[in-house]
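This is your field. Have a critical look at the following sequence-structure pair:

***
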Amino acid sequence: MHLRGLSARSTRSRRRRTWAATVTAGVVAAGLLSGPAANARPAPEPSPTTMSVKSPPGGANVRVLIFHGSAAAGDESPVVNAGIEAIERIGLSGPANQRFKVEATGDSAVFTDEARLGRFNAIVFLTGGGDVLDPEQEAGLEAYMEAGGGFVGIHDAARAEPYSDWFTGLVGARPAAAGPANVQRATVEVGDRQHPATKDLPLQWKRPDQWLNWVKNPSGDVHTVARVRESTYQPGAGANGWDHPVSWCRDYDGGRSFYTGMGGTVSSYDETDFRAHLRGALLWTTRLVQADCKATVNGNYKAERLTQPNQPGHNDQIGEPHGLVTAPDGRVLYIGRGGADSSQPVITDWNNPDIGKGKGEIHVYDPATKKVTLAGELTVFGNKGGGDELVKVEEGLLGIELDPRFEQNGWVYLHYTPHAQINRDTRMAERRVSRFTLDPATDKLDLGSEKVLLKWPVQIHSCCHAGGGMTWDSKGNLYIATGDNNSSGFSGGYSGNNPQPNYKGVSFADARRTAGNTNNLNGKILRIHPEPDGTYTLPDGNLFTGRETDEGGGKTRGEIYVMGVRNPARIFVDRKTDILYAGWVGPDASAPSTTWGPAKYDTFAVITEAGNRGWPYCMGNKQPYRDRNLPDPTQPLGWYDCDHPKNESPNNDGLVDLPAVTGNNIWYSPQGGAPDFPRDANGVPSYKQEEATYLLPWLKGGGQAAMNGPVYRYDAASTSATKWPSYWDGKWFVGDFYDADQPRNAVITDPKNHGAGGLPVHSESLKKIVPVGNDGIRNLMDWKFGPDGALYVLDYGRGFFTSDAKSALWRVTYTGGGPTPAVDQLARGTQ
């Protein structure tokens, strides 16, 4: 092992101090202010001995140094020659004010030549690796970076200076010993759509290269701009998994560092896209343009709990968390479903008039005062306890939204199950969406102002699946998510299609009565247009008009926008595109069955038009369930036809012939993300677990409860110091109630196919930013961005059907600052 003793370290330290005291350019000489126009005569180069210590290296004539020194003996690498030629071509191309001169050297003595080194805006390491710098030379490179220099490392540069922790930080990661040596074609997922090195690249970039594995994954410590998809090549024994960074950047030790693991072949440098990749990296490191290389660094985010635990016996801070919405002035309104704290009695006796009676609370958090106000309480059916399917309940106060003109009218929409409307004899209840008025001066809800927009019946004999989420589009249409109002039992955890169990004639185990029924509002996403008088109209483009019939005399409801969803707790419309994003919880089967069909699939979908999402006939990418026999529903019949589904349930009062099923974008089971199987001639999957392939390896479940999140939209006009950076703009947040192997990710979908169920093209974990664990946000119930650009998150708590000390509202803010370099440090003025 090559050892460096105390004297070497002392020498390097002295060298850095000396260099930093004399190197770098004055403001004019470095071109830090608005530089000369493209056709102006360049300013003369400065004398290094007169440079100001506060100004970065480089002169008005932007220069790039390529260092290709290697510890290995032998002839010059063809890759090095190809790289030099490509970078020279890059420097001569593009707009005149983004061109630069290139000098190449294999002589490491350049790093102790202050006068020469200080003339370069960026240094490219195009080296075969090894211990290429002595202590003084490494000290010169460190001082160069401390003074504001730029660094680009290409491929084997990650092997250079193997004994230097500082250089490891500079390049970001070290190659693992195990890994493929051969060139393979693979798909690169380009996650950063804004950095100059990646913004013009394909979302899915297919190219050949020599792919490196990493000793330690740098994601979260660096800003990863691209990942390689391991399923598209053979990564070898040292594989990194689904999160396999291939290019990244960071602000490091005073300067800017960009590294790409690509460029290991001669042919790379002939690729137009790869040269564009290098060009963008060089534009940023030379200070010709700004870029954000902080956006995914975990340390740049702060998660803060906003609410305190409730006082004993009171839900003064928070009820059983079930949804939130942010007001334009920054206030956060959040609801409690109806479960009381553990000191309150739970009545489960149907002979008692107070069965299931609970309080659905509406709280308001004011960021100006950091205080919580209990705005109001609705008396709901929703405190019936946990346990058996026939005892627990998921009804209550389920959803909240604010009118698009909330600042003017104070209107709040609530989705809830009033206790006063339950029928204990038939065990039926009424679900409704109502409008109330909030007094902005007191943060109190006027319960007497209720206008009931929409109401429909639900069975409450057996649990579960109430849904609850609501959202608006840009046209003033209100979307309402409803669960299938069906038991999780009686079908073995597969398709909820057992027609037999009923209470006084109302089935509670056949989702064909609800989600698969065109004449029932349960198991749907509804779309209505609320009117000022408290009524609603039906917008064009819903799935049905309400006037359809068939030979059997069935009918439809015109409020239905999406049918065939099981339990959609959270939905979100991106008002920039009016695309609906939804997620729903799947059934309980822990493994696929060759008899009955797929395991439990929790699901997320990008919905661009009205349609049928399959439940209880099909799930995932149109994987069918098996029909059941009568009078013995334990005996299977044929497989459902996802392209031509029929509702032949005795509990159906809608159309028999249903719309074709649209495949979903994301589904996951306990075995992994997006299970898929070989299919027979009729298109039926084998459902043999050993034959499964997993199309989304970043996903895995277990205990699962999908919690759809928002699409972030960056507000450039906002002056908020805590807003998330523009890197996240357009990314879709998907999560799960649980925080172990379940998702908490930001994904990118392809507009070309996402409406038809196309798989996401890129994903990155948020678990270090939206923190998991018992003292973090362990049980994610809802999450939305506020007008300040911060993320607000509800943690449900650690119990069920109650609130506890961990039930809380959180805020996750960004603290990393803006893009770099600062405007007054750009090499040729603001870009």
Notes: The longest strand covers residues 444-459. Residues 6-22 form the longest helix (17 residues).
